[in-house]
Specification:
By secondary structure, this protein is α/β, with parallel strands linked by helices. It contains eleven helices and six strands. 41% of the residues lie in helices and 12% in strands. α11 links the parallel β5 and β6. The protein starts with a helix and ends in a 13-residue tail after the last strand. The structure holds zinc ion (2 copies). One zinc ion binds next to α4.
């Protein structure tokens, strides 16, 4: 079977890479071998959730079985925060209690099980290849809601964190927005304060924590514009609200939001996720 052949070839490539790194530490040869390895072992024939072989092309890199298990939110979503809601409710209990600054958020997945694992891999395990598939999920949702916007702005991370991680995971996902890539603006918002880890903070602590840490770099570009903010997860909404606040202050006319996952699951699970 061709996949077995690829695996054998890849094994040799990995051995060669190992020898190369041990003997020479040669960067060039490593890079070449890495390219060959990527070419021989494209990342779209195993499921990103279970690792099993996928028999046909999947835009989300997911096998049929995992596709059914992924917690897609679909139409039963809160009309404000985008969380999955039970039965006929239109606004979730959380949004009934809390006023948001952003006008509305849309999310693809509930932040449970596989979604948590995938986002953690993308953010903390350097699994950049996932950005393409998760970005495709985001983009399809975008096409579905078809918002009338001028800019698509990823929620910024502080340069310290970017240097540590090597990338902003949301920016990577936005590479999937092929026909709207010209609207993606990564230089409008800036994180000026490297805020402490948000995980384990309560809702009000998160709000305090994020306050004053984001600024609009170029206010002139924002005046009168409609903005779509994008992030990986909507947790308490504090970060999204802070971005919306500075954008409105700079003269934006509309600020809506979109996230891959949504951690508001009626009666709220206070999960642990950081920027
Ligand atoms: Zn699978
Ligand atoms: Zn809500």
């Amino acid at each position: 079977m061709w996949i077995i052949n690829l695996l054998v070839i890849r094994f040799f490539v990995i051995v060669l890479m190992g020898i190369n790194i041990i003997k020479n530490g040669g960067k060039v040869l490593s890079k070449v071998l890495d390219r060959i390895s990527n070419w021989l072992f494209p990342d779209d024939f195993v499921c990103i959730c279970c690792g099993n072989e996928i028999s046909k092309y999947s835009r989300y890199g997911v096998c049929d079985k995992c596709m059914k298990e992924l917690p897609f939110i679909g139409n039963s979503a809160c009309e404000i925060c985008g969380a999955r809601v039970i039965a006929d409710s239109i606004i979730c209990t959380d949004c009934k209690r809390t006023a948001r600054v952003f006008e509305r958020n849309y999310s693809v997945l509930s932040y449970t099980d596989q979604a948590v694992r995938l986002i953690h891999m993308l953010k903390y395990s350097n699994a950049r290849y996932l950005a393409k598939y998760l970005g495709n999920m985001l983009y399809d949702k975008f096409l579905l809601i078809n918002p009338n916007i001028d800019y698509i702005i990823p929620v910024p991370i502080h340069s310290n964190r970017r240097n540590q991680r090597g990338y902003n995971q949301t920016e990577l996902m936005l590479n999937s927005f092929v026909n709207h890539i010209d609207k993606v603006a990564t230089d409008i918002l800036e994180r000026t304060i490297d805020t402490p880890n948000q995980a384990r903070l309560t809702k009000s602590e998160r709000k305090e924590n994020i306050k004053g840490s984001i600024r609009v770099v170029d206010k002139l570009r924002i005046k009168g514009k409609s903005i779509l903010l994008v992030d990986d997860v909507l947790t308490s909404g504090a970060t999204m609200d802070e971005c919306a606040k500075v954008l409105f202050k700079a003269g934006a006319s509309h600020v809506i939001a979109m996230t891959l996952a949504n951690a508001h699951i009626e009666s709220a699970l206070e999960e642990e996720i950081d920027d």
